[in-house]
């Protein structure tokens, strides 16, 4: 639970749970919704119009009260919670005297959607934890199109598994890896300018999230299909000249990778990258069994990551007859 000494989100408020405790992010907005809907108009002398007209309809027959309560919910939130736009209000009967109203809304300035339940007796509830930690990782400037990398630390230790050390070519590739491998930590969102994680707070003493760029040059080339009695011919140009020694012909991607790592290591680190039919990236420093399971529609690429100053390079792979 956050306190006044460690606020990390620009969206926060004093919690109703106790002195000195704050709520941040979606929990703060849910608390505001609860206060708006449960406050009777003219009960606050300093803001007589604050609240909702729900109380006017709680004694009405269900066929009259329910539609009017829905209308009152939408009207009150439009006036008093401008950070959201209500997209849907439903209802069901908890018992004959207790209608309950599921409410779905979106944040107006971010691509986040949340759902809550408004109970006339118990107020606003959410399927998500109220005690969430909100971590944000803004996108760094990247005019040179360097690979992206992400760091996620919880309680002083890196969160497993570790991301691929050579980084990811695009933010979309990075977010795909994050949701696949770190989805267990909470709810992830990719926004226009940052990643946002609503992390379950249980057991968390400290946490941080950051996206950076790796100052390396990445070059890659796809392996073409290789018919029978054909081999791969590799052309590697470094700063305008053929890399030495020249690579001999090989009939297997694993042979190409092993030779490059042995003979061209001075230029950079070599990897095989595979993109499955679903778009998932798989990397390896050696051509291992993990590549046998990616399916026949996978695309394989040879990748070089160079940290040399002023490095410029290009790769070309063609299939030639033996």
How would you characterize the overall build of this protein?
- This protein folds into three domains: 12-125, Nuclear Transport Factor 2, Chain: A (Roll), CATH 3.10.450; 132-213, no CATH class; 217-321, no CATH class.
- The model is unreliable at 288-294 (pLDDT under 50).
- The longest helix is centred in the N-terminal third of the chain and has 19 residues, at 62-80.
- 20% of the residues are buried.
- The protein is built from four helices and 20 strands.
- It is an alpha+beta fold and 322 residues long.
- The chain starts with 11 loop residues before the first strand and ends with a strand.
- Helix content is 17%, strand content 36%.
- The strands form six sheets. Strands 3, 4, 5, 6 and 7 form a five-stranded antiparallel sheet that branches.
- A hairpin with a 3-residue loop joins β6 (113-119) and β7.
């Amino acid at each position: 639970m956050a306190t006044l000494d460690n606020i990390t989100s620009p969206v926060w408020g004093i919690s109703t749970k106790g002195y000195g405790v704050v709520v941040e992010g979606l929990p703060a907005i849910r608390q505001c919704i609860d206060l708006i809907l449960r406050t009777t108009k003219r009960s606050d002398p300093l803001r007589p119009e604050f609240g909702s007209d729900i109380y006017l309809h709680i004694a009405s027959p269900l066929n009259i009260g329910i539609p009017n309560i829905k209308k009152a919910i939408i009207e009150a939130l439009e006036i008093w919670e401008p950070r959201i736009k209500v997209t849907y209000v439903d209802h069901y009967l908890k018992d004959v005297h207790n209608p309950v109203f599921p409410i779905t809304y979106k944040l107006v300035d971010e691509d986040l959607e949340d759902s809550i339940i408004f109970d006339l007796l118990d107020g606003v509830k959410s399927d998500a934890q109220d005690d969430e930690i909100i971590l944000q990782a803004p996108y760094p400037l990247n005019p040179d199109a360097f690979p992206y990398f992400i760091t996620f630390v919880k309680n002083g230790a890196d969160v497993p598994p570790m991301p691929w050390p050579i980084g990811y070519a695009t933010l979309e590739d990075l977010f795909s890896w994050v949701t696949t491998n770190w989805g267990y930590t909470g709810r992830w969102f990719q926004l226009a300018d940052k990643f946002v994680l609503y992390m379950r707070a249980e057991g968390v003493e400290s946490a941080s999230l950051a996206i950076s760029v790796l100052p390396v040059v990445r070059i890659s080339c796809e392996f073409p299909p290789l018919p029978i009695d054909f081999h791969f011919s590799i052309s590697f140009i470094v700063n305008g000249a053929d890399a030495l020694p020249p690579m001999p012909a090989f009939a297997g991607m694993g042979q190409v990778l092993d030779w490059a790592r042995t003979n061209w290591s001075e230029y950079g680190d070599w990897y095989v990258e595979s993109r499955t039919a679903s778009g998932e990236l798989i990397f390896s420093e050696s051509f291992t069994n993990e590549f046998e399971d990616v399916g026949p529609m996978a695309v394989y690429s040879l990748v070089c990551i160079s940290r040399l100053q002023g490095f410029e390079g290009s790769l070309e792979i063609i299939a030639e007859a033996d």
